[in-house]
Amino acid sequence: MTTFGISFPLGRLWGVARGEQGGLGYATGNITLESECVNGEKANITVRYHVGYGSYGLPAIATGGRISFQDNKDSIVPSIFNGHISFSSVGVASVLGGVNYTAISVGQVNSIGPGVSFGMDAGIGNYEGTANVIRSTRSKCGCE
């Protein structure tokens, strides 16, 4: 089983609708993924996404979190991230902190996970589009 950790550049994915009271739009950006060590190899994968979105919410100062994907394969297969991308997010925060919850599907894998929010924030959003692997590198690691 390959587990990929996901890391979104700050302000690229969920930050698209920040500062708006809601609306429809288009966003593009990159998702950076790093796998665990599998059969002596580790992979770094970059996926480019293009999405249309609908959102409603108050502006936030900061929001973020980590999500991981498990593909149930015995080897690293970057092409599983090609295809449809969709994610939905809901969150609430006060100056004392808060939480957001995101469900994301990229190609053939999906994940659900919590995150943290700071500032004055309350919102919901849905994003749909396409995802394609644009870079994939492998390196040796100390596991067998």
Which descriptors apply to this entry?
0% helix; single chain; mainly beta; 9-stranded antiparallel sheet; 9 strands; 144 residues
Description:
With 144 residues, this protein is an all-beta fold. It has one domain (3-140). It is built from no helices and nine strands. Strands 4-8-7-6-9-3-2-1-5 form a nine-stranded antiparallel beta sheet, with no helix packed on it. A hairpin with a 2-residue loop joins strand 7 and strand 8 (109-118). The radius of gyration is 16 Å and the shape is globular. It starts with a strand and ends with a strand.
Q: Give the low-pLDDT segments.
A: 6-20
Q: What is the total tally of β strands?
A: 9
Total of domains: 1
Query: What's the overall average pLDDT, rounded?
Result: 75
**What is the share of helical residues?**
under 10%
Query: What Rg do the Cα atoms give?
Result: 16 Å
The rough form would be described as: globular
Strand content: over 45%
Q: Structural class, from secondary structure content?
A: mainly beta
Helical segment count? 0
Cα distance, first to last residue? 13 Å
The main pleated sheet reads as: 9 strands, antiparallel
Query: Largest beta sheet: what is the strand line-up?
Result: 4-8-7-6-9-3-2-1-5
Q: What is the topology?
A:
Elements: E1 3-7, E2 23-35, E3 41-57, E4 62-65, E5 67-70, E6 83-94, E7 97-106, E8 109-118, E9 121-140
Antiparallel strand pairs: 1-2, 1-5, 2-3, 3-9, 4-8, 6-7, 6-9, 7-8
